[in-house]
């Protein structure tokens, strides 16, 4: 599976942010059509006290809101000092256009999540 | 949200298939990296007796296996006389390349499914 290419993110002008351990990156129900790529550190995706996912370097999160523009379905929390690169919707569409492998990568993350959830039905 | 363009499917050489009411289109655990677009009729996505989804004209199903090449996570059943257009993996990649809106459409279907499942957690 193709990984995220940090160079193309930089070229698109994607901004970098740092968070301390324990800091919230976004809250459930927030509205913001942005996704994030973890540059370093670790992020937990949490809903009502349940940890849905641990995201490490090269991993992405927040991709749901950028796809359908709906409020955040879960919160994201830095569990150690963490640097993330933020991708907004125009940048996201540009990545889809220039790189079908990026589209497949995002789809594959979503499909994996659905399969895990199906397995727990 | 962009819908599926049947003309571009035809141009790619995607094959059409018809199924009678009650006929299986694929079974859970089948391996086959193909997705389907409903041209007419109605398809139910079923796992262990639970109906996960009803798919009508213009809707797609079977997209999970084409993304990650894993066995089918559910079965698909024609619930009335149904015509589907079959897309194989090379055709799928070609659609991603030529049309970022198609990628976004597939992602949006997956994101909607995840949100529904999250809501039932």
Structural description of this entry:
Two copies of one chain form a homodimer. Chain A is of the alpha+beta class. The first copy, chain A, has four helices and eight strands; from the N terminus they run αββββββαββαα. In chain A, strand 4 and strand 5 (50-55) form a beta hairpin. The longest helix of chain A has 20 residues, at 100-119. The two termini of chain A are 27 Å apart. The A-B interface holds A 47-48, 50, 52, 63-64, 67-68, 70, 73-74, 93, 96-97, 100, 103-104, 106-108, 110-115, 117-118, 121 and B 47-48, 50, 63-64, 67-68, 70, 73-74, 93, 96-97, 100, 103-104, 106-108, 110-115, 117-118, 121.
Spatially, the strands of the biggest sheet of chain A line up as 1-8-3-6
Oligomer: homodimer
Largest sheet of chain A: 4 strands, antiparallel
Please indicate the percent range of residues of chain A in DSSP E strands (runs of 2 or more): 25-35%
- Helix fraction of chain A by DSSP (H/I, runs of at least 4): 25-40%
**Secondary-structure element pattern of chain A, one letter each:** HEEEEEEHEEHH
Secondary structural class of chain A: alpha+beta
Number of helical runs of chain A? 4
If you average the pLDDT of chain A, what whole number results?
90
| Poorly predicted segments of chain A | none
Largest interface, by Cβ-Cβ below 8 angstroms: which chains and how many residues each?
A-B, 29 and 28 residues
Please give the alpha-carbon distance between the first and last residues of chain A: 27 Å
Overall, the morphology of chain A is globular
Number of strands of chain A: 8
């Amino acid at each position: 599976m193709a990984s995220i290419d940090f160079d193309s993110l930089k070229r698109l002008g994607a901004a970098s942010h740092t968070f301390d351990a324990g800091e919230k990156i976004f809250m459930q129900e927030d509205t913001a059509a942005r996704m994030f790529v973890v540059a370093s550190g670790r992020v937990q995706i949490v809903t009502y006290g349940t940890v849905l996912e641990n995201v490490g370097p090269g991993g992405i999160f927040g991709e749901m809101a950028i796809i359908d523009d709906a409020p955040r379905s879960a919160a994201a929390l830095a569990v150690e000092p963490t640097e993330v690169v933020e991708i907004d919707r125009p940048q996201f569409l540009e990545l889809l256009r220039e790189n079908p492998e990026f589209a497949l990568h995002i789809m594959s993350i979503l499909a994996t999540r659905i399969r895990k959830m199906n397995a727990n039905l």
